[in-house]
Design goal:
8 helices; mainly alpha
């Protein structure tokens, strides 16, 4: 079964701006709802950027799953001689699908609850953030064998790699950086500061995921263009030879 990529560069650029616009809408709606004191419980539940059943959580879950699906498509179409190997694309697929599941089910909070009683496990103030050390440790282990494919991405797909790398940085700044600030400095702070921390954290996570998604889409288009060019170069001599024989 042949899997085709049926979108254009312009489609991806437009999608990026639409995603940012929707994220800004969610951010403003959350801040306004917080300023007004959450007058309607149903609206509060839908607009709470940190809520389990909010629109933002659904949106982030879908974005992360879409990134995983793009990597899955590229892994299925990968060839043995590709610069970016299939196993690396499959690893990216598994990683982002896991993050999507984590966003929906809050798995990182479960990890903290299950391991917080172990005295040797590192943590932040108030026994928070055990999951950060677990995730960063696992990420470092997976990074070591992935260095060569990452370098290949940077060499042969620099534009899409730069967008994905920037997205990862922004995502980590929100998911880890702002989370640590909340654990260490804002647990006893006035609600205004907590609201601003949540707004910044969740917006950066959504923005970073959008950049990764569009970077992955650009990579898919670049890879398709390269594959088409290589196929054309291979078929052209065969065509010339056939014409010469007929003459």
């Amino acid at each position: 079964m042949e899997i085709s990529i049926r979108f254009s560069w312009e489609n991806v650029r437009q999608l990026f701006f639409w995603l940012i616009g929707f994220e800004l809408f969610l951010l403003v709606a959350y801040l306004l709802e917080s300023v007004l004191g959450s007058p309607v419980w149903t609206i509060e539940r839908l607009l709470d950027l940190d809520g389990e059943l909010s629109i933002a959580v659904w949106f982030s879950t879908v974005q992360l799953a879409a990134i995983g699906i793009l990597f899955l498509i590229k892994a299925a179409k990968a060839r043995p001689n590709d610069q970016v190997p299939r196993w690396f694309l499959a690893l990216g697929c598994a990683g982002f699908l896991f993050l999507s599941l984590d966003e929906h089910l809050q798995l990182h909070e479960t990890i903290t609850k299950l391991t917080v009683h172990l005295d040797w496990v590192p943590r932040f103030s108030g026994d928070h953030g055990v999951w950060i050390f677990a995730y960063l440790g696992l990420g470092c282990l997976l990074l070591l064998p992935s260095l060569r494919p990452i370098v290949a991405l940077w060499r042969f797909h620099r534009y899409s790699f730069s967008l994905m790398a920037a997205g990862v940085g922004v995502f980590l700044l929100g998911a880890v950086g702002m989370e640590v600030i909340g654990y260490e400095f804002l647990r006893e702070a006035p609600r205004l500061y907590q609201v601003l921390e949540i707004a910044t954290e969740e917006f950066l996570e959504m923005l970073g995921a959008s950049a990764i998604l569009c970077g992955a889409a650009f990579y898919a288009l670049e890879a398709e263009a390269v594959r088409a060019a290589v196929t054309e170069d291979i078929q052209q001599p065969e065509l010339t030879a056939a014409v010469g024989t007929a003459s």
